[in-house]
Amino acid sequence: MVERILIHAGAPKTATTFIQRGLYSNRDLLADLGVYLPMTGRLELEPNAVCHHHLAWALISPRAYRRSPQGWSALADELSSVDARVVILSSEAFSRVASKDDGSQLVTNAARELSESLTIAYFVRNQLSLMNSLYGQRVKSLRMVEGFDYHTDNYRSRRLFDYEALLKPWYTDDSLRFEAVPFTGSRDVDPLAELLTAAGIDLGDAVLEHESDDVNSSLGPVGIEAARLLGSYLRGMFPDFDSEEMAAKKLYRLSSSRAQSNGWCDESFWGWTTSTAQETVDYFSSANDRFARDVWGNDWSIPMPVDKETSAVSLLDLEPSTLERIQRYVFSLTHRFSGMRAETDPS
Amino acid sequence: MTQLVIHTGMPMTSAAVIRDQLAGWREPLERAGVELVAKDAPKAWDRAVRQVLGGEVPPPLRRVMRRTQQGEAPTVLLSAELAARALGSRPTVNALRALSRDSGLTTKVVLVVREQLDLLNALYCRRVMALETSIGFESFVTDALVSGRLELDHHFTALQDASGVELVAVPYSRLDHHLPAAAVLEAAGAAGGAAVTGADAAADVQAAADDRWLPGPVLLTATRLLHKRLTRLGAVRKRPAEELGAAVAMLRHRATDAAWNEVPFWGWSQDLAATAEQHYRSGNDSFAARVWAAPWPDVAPSRPQTRQDLASEPPAVVSDVMTMIHRAVDELTAGRAVAVTT
């Protein structure tokens, strides 16, 4: 019997991969503590992580998952024979579900089919860092080639960044427990431990173990420009390029690794200028305060790094030697992409 | 008295086009009493102007002056952009004054001036397209502001102060786009100069249009990238100028074919433009007050900044630019000539 469901719903770019790999690495310890980590819904591309993206996607595209072994019915079947104090479902894609109209209710209803007791945990990160980090991720995964300002101008109004609008359906729902965990990005804090603590899982003297996180390094300023150029060049050379196709996903891993070996992840990227940062902070200020008062009982106190100097660079201002390396990176990876496509789809 | 007119101008004020148009009108100008004492080659014009500014009378000018003694009153017209720089020096202005006085010349300098924001934008484009630089526009402007070389009032103080040498300034914005030399003749007060201004040969018009041409942001970006890559490979120093020029011409040709340049480059952000305007304003006002007894006539253009962000351009353009640059670099580093057409 499942006593309680804990949904770790995001946000994206709040160490979710680290947490999900940590859940996998510590699965035996957690099992001893009465925590069950379902197999259903896990992402196949991340075998060493517990990330239930399929369950979130099943709420977005229910038809596609109607008879899927990765859907909610299959999960119910799996849990029917499980005796656990807590079942953890982890996917930042749940935040994507919640950002749609009535999406929060979809998550709540699906979980209630499994247990009457539901906890939703959400890591709350300041919007400047969140948008900055999301931009880097989108560029790195070849989904976006536009500049940082374009990204922030076009995404700022999305519900994902308005915590009040996004999370209110959960934190005002008396039938569930909602835990908002401030995310600071500090390396002194173990986000998995924070999640478990917030969910009321007592670790006692146990020490959590974590594997290294080298694949998920963020691109620095030069890496951002290189990846943008790669993404744009690929789209020019292959007009049907799709960042979701298998060859592109493989290329993403290869290009990330190449960027890292070129030293393009050594520095951190910060796309905001002090003026654009201040404007954005002002934009969110009132909603943040209302959200913080509702969930924590005080005004918003997560630091906003408004004064941090931008580290963004322009491709054209880079040293000739760096441009030479970027050009090699773009041309060689495009060549590899062509080969990967042929392997993936020989027709 | 012989009237000596020296046409010159700030950089990017169509000086070469004006000189070529004047040379092309040599015969009708002579019939109207305006003598071009230098032969058509630009070097000859430059040499004659250097001699005059050095206090010497070039032989052709001496011949004209003899005719003055016989009762004629011709106008002698010289034209060279280099004069503008030289006339920023007080000893040069003094040498010109002495020459005028000692030779009995009435001397007039016709100076074409251009509003600095517009000028810096054009100057930047020219230097990038000539593969002379690949720095960013903001750095280019900062260097220009620090150097002070476009500060009209300061640079031409000696010329404005000089008695015996008249300074006539013509705003670049008032030049006829097709026949800029006409405004110079008018400013020179050259008798009969108007008689030739109808001679708008197609070649003149084309040359004037080419002179005002600005690249679009994509072409400029591509040329900066080409420069950086060639610099890295040492090709900017090793390869002859005409081969480098062919590589740029190839990009320009492609830009025309693929319509990369529908909007001309404009590098000014609002903040940078405000800083530069502030920098030049008082000098321009002071110059205008002394030369025209009127306010500075030109308002800095206010256009949206064109971005220089290759990755944000349409993907087809990005792959096109990258491929073209790669080809040009390959050919130049292999010692082959770059074909202009693709």
What do you see in this structure?
- The complex is a heterodimer of chains A (347) and B (342).
- Chain A is an alpha/beta fold and 347 residues long.
- Helices cover 48% and strands 9% of the residues of chain A.
- In chain A, strands 2-3-1-4-5 form a five-stranded parallel sheet, sandwiched between helices.
- Chain A is globular, with a radius of gyration of 21 Å.
- With 342 residues, chain B is of the alpha/beta class.
- Chain B has 17 helices and five strands.
- Chain B has a five-stranded parallel sheet with strand order 2-3-1-4-5, with helices on both faces.
- The longest helix of chain B is centred in the C-terminal third of the chain and has 22 residues, at 270-291.
- Chain B starts with a strand and ends in a 9-residue tail after the last helix.
- Chains A and B meet through α11 and α14 of A and α13 and α17 of B.
Nearest-angstrom radius of gyration of chain A? 21 Å
Helix share of residues of chain B?
Answer: 55-70%
Strands across the major sheet of chain A, in which order?
2-3-1-4-5
The end-to-end distance of chain B, rounded to whole angstroms, is 58 Å
Helix count of chain B, per DSSP?
Answer: 17
Low-confidence regions of chain B: none
Q: Biggest β-sheet of chain A: count, sense, barrel?
A: 5 strands, parallel
Q: What is the 3D form of chain A?
A: globular
Order of helices and strands of chain A: EHHEHHEHHEHHHEHHHHH
Spatial extent as radius of gyration of chain B: 22 Å
Arithmetic mean of pLDDT of chain A: 94
Cα end-to-end separation of chain A: 49 Å
Residue fraction in strands of chain B: 5-15%
The greatest interface here is: A-B, 27 and 25 residues
Count of individual beta strands of chain B: 5
Approximate helicity band of chain A: 40-55%
Count of individual beta strands of chain A: 5
- The pLDDT mean of chain B sits at 88
